[in-house]
Fold this protein.
Amino acid sequence: MLENALKNRNSHIDYKEKARALRERLSVLQLKIRDARLPVIIVFEGWGASGKGSMIAEVIKYLDPRFFKVSSTMPASEEERRYPMMKRFWDSIPEYGKISVLDRSWYRELALARMEEGISKDEYKRRISSVGGFERMLSDDGYLIIKFFLHISKSEQKKRFDKLRDNEETDWRYSETDKKRHKHYDEYYDAFDDMLERTDLPCSPWNVIDTEDKAYSRFKVLEIITDKINEALEGKAPKAQSAVEYPLLCMSRLGDIPLSGKIVSPEEYPERLKAAQKELSKLHNRLYMKKIPMLICFEGWDAAGKGGAIKRIASALDPRGYEAVPVSAPDKTELNHHYLWRFWKHVPKSGHIAIFDRTWYGRVMVEKIEGFTPVSRCNEAFAEINEFERELTDSGAIVLKFWLQIDKDEQLRRFTDRQNTPEKQWKITDEDWRNREKWELYEKAVDEMIEKTSTAYAPWTVVEANDKLYARLKVLETVIAAIKDRTE
């Protein structure tokens, strides 16, 4: 792709004047972006001394600073390396209606890591896949991603480096890393070219600009940005490719799972619980030592016993090494981002555990049934969730997903008990009763959810929960088995 970089083909045109007109146009489009709630991400990658900083200054010159943010992506810190690669980029995606301009981006983790960190070919391919999934998910959610690679020849780079080095006010900008990269320009050329080819997606294509002619390159960048924004505002933005499909496990429908006979006597429960919690406590330390993160996710019918199961897990863990995440309806800020954004914020670092009381699966259950989200977006979520969970497991995490299953009669009994017991009344709401009236709709949605998202790397475990004691022990024993399987 680098050999086809866009160059100035007409030296007689006044590109400075054209660029000025485009900057003014962009300032008008910014208001339309805000009103249309269109989120825009503009990525600048390229060679050292190719002009990324000055190009960004040109782009934002007339923009309202309240509605854009410029970020420079530095190498990941030691703390950031304890999380999946894409977490820090998910954390910083813009709100709907705002613009994010990136001086380098997640692409720092690809070609440069391949050249300078010695990542393996398999890891390089995995990171390519992670980036593709990230950009597809954002594109499907309406984000406009505009990517630029600023290109210069080896001789032009040397001229610019020499100019920086010879000026005492700018010599600090010329580093030993720049010197090394210039010396091995040809190898970096091949690495960048391969990266561009592999990540040139229909929803987020690369725009490679030769920046030797500064006036032309600035005009061209502004022209591409304004054209892409206009297309997006008119609903003509390119669509994402289909998400990667992962093999699914064959799962039983909820109605076919027998609940009778799955009981534990009150006499044997205390001893089994104590033994399981003692073992889990030891295994939590093993997870920490081996730097393995773990996500334990709970979904289930109202009053199915999620809270009780979570308490029995948490009481066995070192409180410094886990977080319990209660998930409720998204707030205003969360609604202004991709729906997975708020969950990425709670992804645990290596050696830690996150316990989710309800999860991202609300997108394909309550949001779909109650009409909070368009059905088309809910249906796309199945593939997005599979990619999200694959990203977690590929980064080393254990992902456990529990559906706590009770029958309708048992739920009614528990609802009635809560309603008639003063200290439990806070647990029962009008919404619980309304949801109960839609039992058949929810059961159908859950069957579809389990069918389409029970992958080999993140399978669903359906817990027969009519008997709370049995359910709590099954959850604990499943968690224990998963940790042992990874660490022994």
Notes: Residues 15-36 form the longest helix (22 residues). The chain has 19 helices and ten strands.
